[in-house]
Design a protein that fits this description.
There is one protein chain. The chain folds into three domains: 4-52, no CATH class; 64-258 and 413-495, Aminopeptidase, CATH 3.40.630.10; 261-409, Alpha-Beta Plaits. β4 and β5 (176-178) form a beta hairpin. The longest helix has 19 residues, at 285-303. It is built from 14 helices and 20 strands. The protein is α+β, with helices and mostly antiparallel strands and 497 residues long. α7 (186-200) packs across α14. Helices cover 31% and strands 21% of the residues.
Length: 497
Amino acid sequence: MPTFNIIEKVINYRTNTRPSSPIAFLVQNKPIRLHKNKSSYLPMIAALTESFTETELKLNALELNEERFLQLLAKLIGESEFVQNTGVGTNFVPREDLCVRHVVDVLEPYTIERGGRLTVERKCYAPGRSNVIVRLKGRGESREQLSFVGSHLDVVPADAEAWEVDPFKLTVDGDKLYGRGTTDCLGHVALLTTLFTQLAEMDGYDLRTSLSCVFIASEEANGPGIGVDGLVENGELEHCKAGPVVWVDCADSQPCIGTAGAITWDLSVKGHRFHSGLPHKGINAIELAMEATSKLQEAFYEKFPPCEQEREYKFITSSTMKPTQIRCAPGGLNQIPPDATVSGDIRLTPFYEVDEVKAFLEKQVKDMNENIQELPTRGPWSKYVIDDPSKTSTNEKLIGKIEINWGEHLLTGIACDLSSPAFTKMCDAIKEVKGKAEPYSLTGSLPLVHDLKSAGFDIQLIGFGLMSTYHADNEHALLSDMKDAAKILSKLIMKFH
């Protein structure tokens, strides 16, 4: 019979996920506390132990091995200086194998080759930049699968002078864990590695569902074919399609259910340079760019307004089109600029199509060029067309021109499947540990997640760092959150038993 400390944890477990269990009737979905006279609960304990397997009891009682977690995290953060990533051919190209070495060293004693339960494979598509696939097979011939993907081995760069602590060294200050990657995403790598070692050494482990964990290279600045895209292309993640994929690289210990897409744009305008003291002889490219941008924004918000799905998915904002930069031709303050470019991005919720947005705005620009004289001007001497050649320096009719161009990467957002059993089970696991589950959506983009979802994977999103410190100076996570994370993930695993 299980020990009383385990029984206490299980009795305090909200059993609404097992309504057929005798204990569900006894506790009526409410936690109860054992009295000092624990013998009075023996009938309840007997009913409990009949309805829960040894594996379920141990999973429900699992707690993060704090010492093991911190030891690995310290080694990973110690490599963070060398896994900074700004993209191939830039100043910071990560050497993820430095982190892989520590992960594999921890997992290796638990591999099948050493008499354990784990298989550990390295998949490398660029020198020194491996991905790691960890698998724990379920019992029998079951093909059911639960996968944890997305925790990555690279980090964003850190400016050491802007930090209050050394960003490339783990600093533990009470509950706070400082260091580049503690939240995004080496903390998750250490968490999942430690969890899988604890699962592998669990006596009586007989989970029906197989588990896998995939640590990926090249997430922060995606190098084509290096990370998860290379794994998908080479068929290394096909086994993950047999069940849900939990993408572990978000924050705040709550389910993320949607992300926005990102479309970058340039609105380039051609005018005519002239002395600002004779404004009627020039076409001010800045003024034309301002009016064209305003017109495009107005049309965008009318065509792609807030919608009900955005409210359902709890997006903080609806789709937006925002200018973020403006540039013009060099010259003196007494010169009307001949060209200007307004740049920005569109944050598009997944309920609108990228191609539709592009086609619509391109049509707006075409119409503006055909009717450029109808655009509002800024003052009585502003013109976008100079009809009288005698008033120009070239003796030609001058017409301003507007052109829209798109950035190289057009990222589409995603909406997770809220009808997926995995989503319900994940919310239940979070409630049992945190007391409540509060799904949210990001107006940022996760291109790799979109690619996986498009490839047919059932994607659910969660993470246990702090959103407020993502990519920030003095990045940190909370040890208490990581300890809760181990409980959440083990309860989620139990629900697939």
